Amino acid sequence: MKVTAAVFGLLAFAATIEAAPKTNKAGSEASIANLKDKIKNVVLITMENRSLDNLLGGQKTKGIENSVNNGPYCNPLNLTDTSKGKACSKPKDYDSILNDPDHGVPGNNIEFYGTFLPDNAAIQAGKLKPTMNGFVHEQLRLYSAKQDQSVLANQVMNYYTEEQVPVITGFTKEFVTFNNWHSGHPGPTNPNRAYIVSGTSAGHGTNDADFGKSALTQHSIFEQLSSQNITWKNYATVAGGGDAMYFASTVASGDSKTKMKSLSEFYQDAYLGRLPQFTYVNPSCCGVGTNSMHPTGLVSDGEVLLKQMYDAIRNGPQWENTLFIVTFDETGGFHDHVAPPLAPRPDNLTYTVATPDKDQYTFEFDRLGGRLPTWIISPWVASGYVEKLGVNSDGETVSYSATSILRTLGYLWDFAPFTPRVEWSPSFDHLILEKTNNKAKPQVMPNPIKF
Ligand SMILES: *[C@@H]1O[C@H](CO)[C@@H](O)[C@H](O)[C@H]1NC(C)=O
Ligand SMILES: *[C@@H]1O[C@H](CO)[C@@H](O)[C@H](O)[C@H]1NC(C)=O
Ligand SMILES: *[C@@H]1O[C@H](CO)[C@@H](O)[C@H](O)[C@H]1NC(C)=O
């Protein structure tokens, strides 16, 4: 018998774990038919800059490979001089940290491979594997002059306990969490956000000026849905300006920018049953008082946003046919122990950048970024289930990633993959159950706490 939150009140989450459906294969006719039958509205929010081992490192749900279940994980303080000692992952993280970890392409290189300049050919040949050992070293290199060494090590290695992040703990216990979900690009925000909405960053490897000028005009989900008369809205915490525009203009095709709506309109639409078929929500970024969880914004402020969105969707009339996807753009330079896999190039573009050592590094967009927290939330998903690797349309068992969203939406709304990367990505339509007791899902998420 499934013990539900309804029995024990709002704070006691379902104690049993429903198995994922065994009958439907991802992308099969039966699975797509079931997806279309159950899901009429999709709500997607992309939060900022957190790795799985950071934000979900303290979640005890079985199947999540993290510090509390499988760790601790350690990094040397200095990659070349191990006599300096090491730092290991520990419970209790800061509500925010002041020293934003390096998450550019060279920063990710040293964090994953121990060098700013890894040999691309050796990576592709499988001869150079990420050790995920350089997070503390890079944080110390950047900030040792202004911050204590143990504080810096804690900033990148420590993790949030279940008690520190009650909303996220609720999502994990009541819905489906992905254990193997990676960002599309081992670099910063805007290229990753472009992968989510368009399946490529069009050769952009960093947050360059083109994003601010709406100069990326490759085919996007917004343009695609408009061409099919599928309704969508692009909501932002601050409509029409400020940091929200920084995200919203990531890819400008399909009037994604000019048709922006405010977040208060999202709450009205959710409670009153007026959500469009596709809802895209931009959190605010990135300093004190913003809600994306990006340093120096507080994790607890991000929890408030996620709770408010959940509560509005859950209590609105569209809940029974809604799929709410919560993901992150990238890992923000926080430690994660899972090596990011190789992935097909979305196009033939490359990105060249000077490393901190003044070498030139050229990236071909042929591997994924670090592992991220991602949940799918719906009355139609199992409670407390952890999904590991996916199976793509070629039958390969591979990691999920940013472009798994476009792969799945393509099945829901009948459009082809925009890029080879999207085509390669496993979809998650099979995690939508054929039968469920949707009354079992909590009416609201618990209150976030300040810590
Ligand atoms: C690591 O140790 C080496 C050798 O002592 C030193 O030259 C280097 O500056 C150290 N690197 C960092 C980032 O502290
Ligand atoms: C979308 O709606 C317009 C206006 O009603 C119509 O002309 C067009 O054929 C529709 N397109 C599709 C793909 O349904
Ligand atoms: C990359 O270039 C090659 C050779 O010109 C071409 O065959 C291939 O289709 C291109 N790939 C993509 C994804 O555009």
Automatic annotation (TrEMBL):
Residues 1-19 form the signal peptide. One of its GO terms (molecular function) is hydrolase activity, acting on ester bonds. One of its GO terms (biological process) is phospholipid catabolic process. Keywords: Hydrolase, Signal. This is Uncharacterized protein. It comes from Pseudogymnoascus verrucosus.
